[in-house]
Amino acid sequence: MDINVFSFIMSVIWFNIFILIINFFRKRDKFISNFNVYSILFLILLAIIRVIFSFDFKNAIIINSEKIYPIFYNFITYEFSLNSLNLRMYNIIILIWVVGILILTICDILNFIKFKKILNTYKNIWNKNNETVLGEIIKSQNIGKKINIVQTENINSPMIVGINNPTIYLPNINFTNEELHFIIFHELNHFLGKDIIKKIFMQIFKNIFWWNPFIHIFAKDFDNILEVQCDLRTTKHMTNLEKKDYLKSIAKVLRNDVNKFETYKVEVASYLINTSNFYDIKQRFKIVLNCNYKSKSKYINIFICILFFILFIASYFFIFKPFYFPEDEGIYYKEGYDTFLIENDEIF
């Protein structure tokens, strides 16, 4: 195995290809309804592994590039001097990359601090029903963690914040007990599924590869898939009528004058309404109503995952490399005190 600039570039190319495949399947409502999101999540994992472990095998098939790669290679290896310091272009590229990571990381930390300060200003509108419904769900799910619940007029969408001892925040909407059960159970499923940890990891991953425009598609699809997965976990044992009531509770939140104030969003929280994109919300509704939990879908999922894994393994056996032709006819060879000039099959 070998790690070099070309194996890294190849890993980024394959990572972007996987992103496009993920985006294709993520937008197919029927696919998710029939086969859930497990195969898509598996491909997401493979995509992350592929770009992190960016090596190639010695027996990999080399695809020679006569135009693009030579130009790129000459650019990154271009040598210049800066205040008597000899540098190559890739030194500047790496410096910009690292500075970008640091800036984005600092911004995330500052946003988190700001978010915590904002949460501390929220005034809790105490509601006995909130505590009662939360206690019932915690007991039924055997959750051993302390979970708080706050209802406030400062947000427009339910959310859960925290990793070990989270807090559920509810907007100031007059929910029925059934609606409360659906919404609180949804938020708790984000906690049980470790979704906040996954979102934090994705944000770190996004910061590292900030220069890749495809990473933003990847992060958005990942967030939507987590939300769909949470919907499916929440409604897995519901009847069709209960599913409709569950979706009505989400629709009630959507009707709650969402333009009145904007909820400050960070990656350390999971939200019932994670997007203003009507297509994504509509997709969630369609998948919940049409989801198929039949056992045969498990075998098809396994088959799809095997195909994705074969593609993942195959990606390591192809690599692009620059290909050069000698500018002049003839080959010059020099070693020690002997010098040979071979031209037109004659030795001089």
Automatic annotation (TrEMBL):
Domain Peptidase M56: 80-286
Keywords, sorted A to Z: Membrane, Transmembrane, Transmembrane helix
Name by which UniProt lists this protein: Signal transducer regulating beta-lactamase production, contains metallopeptidase domain
InterPro entries in alphabetical order: Beta-lactam_resp_regulator (IPR052173), Peptidase_M56 (IPR008756)
Entry's transmembrane regions: 6-25, 37-55, 89-113, 299-319
Coiled coil: none
Annotated Pfam families: Peptidase_M56
